[in-house]
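Q: How would the structure tokens look for this protein?
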Amino acid sequence: MDALQLLVPLLALISTYEWRSVSATSNSTCSELDLEHFKLLEGESFYFVPYDLDHPNSPDENFTWYKNGLEVENITTDETHETHHHGGALFLLNVSTADSGSYTAKQTTPSGNCVTHHVSIKVFNGSSGEDLTYGAVKNSKLNKVISCPSPVKSTCDVFKGKFTWYKGANLRQGEHEAKLRVFNATEEDEDIYTCVCTWTHNHHVYKTSGSRRLIKLETNINRDVQILSPNNKEQLADEGVGIKLNCTIFCGTNVKRDCKASWHLNNKEISQMTGYNQATTREIEEPSKNTYSTAILTIDKVSAKDFQQEFVCKGQGLYTYKETTLTLKQRESIIPLAIGGVCVFFICVLAATLVKCFAIDLALFFRPYLHQCRHNQDGSVYDAFVIYETEDLDEDAEDKLLHFVTVALPSVLEEKCGYQLFIQGRDDIPGEG
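A: Here is the predicted structure in token form.
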């Protein structure tokens, strides 16, 4: 009797070992499909069909569902259980954090092949702060379209459920489509939008939800490229001296990409050639949002070769491309100009000095030549009146004064310079003068 009691457990252990060995061998021949991941909200329900399963309503006996863990838990087909399956479809109703884990379905196809499906599920409560959104709706379109996440939409489609939408915690009245449209979206419309599907299974009502974040991007307008600089074909430069060349283009409004200015030499973009250095920046001007790209080419020392080359400023936009050519021109030396300026300055100083010192002599010298050009407009007969005093003079002084007034003065002013003098004692006697 004792031997028999020992033999029964031994046979059971051997049978179990053989079953596990067969099972392991069988699993090793199954095709392993990719693991799918889902995040669920506690209290909601989840209907899952593997992404590559064409016929989820295949007979139950073709599928074996189980939950992985320390102990493998087979999943029933009994609909009275909140966790059950129908063929390839897995139902998790009113989920809790205890439902988190990895689930596997072993499928036997009509041809006898084995396929293994895997899904990982994490359940969070509402206060966890976990990001449960599926993906952001992020574009610069004026009118936004928010699509209900695929797991929620497929559940509603299968069970003929009803869609409702929430913006944050606020219900969007009258929105019962799989796609929510937000017209003329502004920054105030940015929020998390939740699509809720209310569906019925086995005469019980369940809910499944999924959320997306709406992000409004600023509108961008790509225009034809305009080259703003250089606006001349030539630029003056000095040999042996450094110089910076500016290539600036305009691309449009709020352009974040596809706007680039660059300098090219010999059909190649200048990057870090010896003696050359190029730096490119893009600027969005506020508040106009006009977008500019600038390439600054720094030449450490201009060589004689640089005066023979063509520097090409190129502008690349989204739709258009433009270029312009710039050549360097040797700046003329300022030494000859400086020498000429100094000479003119000294000539002017000399002329001013001569006029200052010899003004009277010059006037008297040019008087004969200018006399013919004089035009007497006031009708005067005399140019000057000479009046003198002889009272209280001795005879010798009086003779000298009379000789100066009547002889010396007229000989110079009247005979040589052409002036007409009125001399007291000469021209006030009738018949003289």
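The chain has four domains: 30-124, 137-216, 221-330, 375-433.

The first strand starts at residue 31 and ends at 41.

Upvote if useful.
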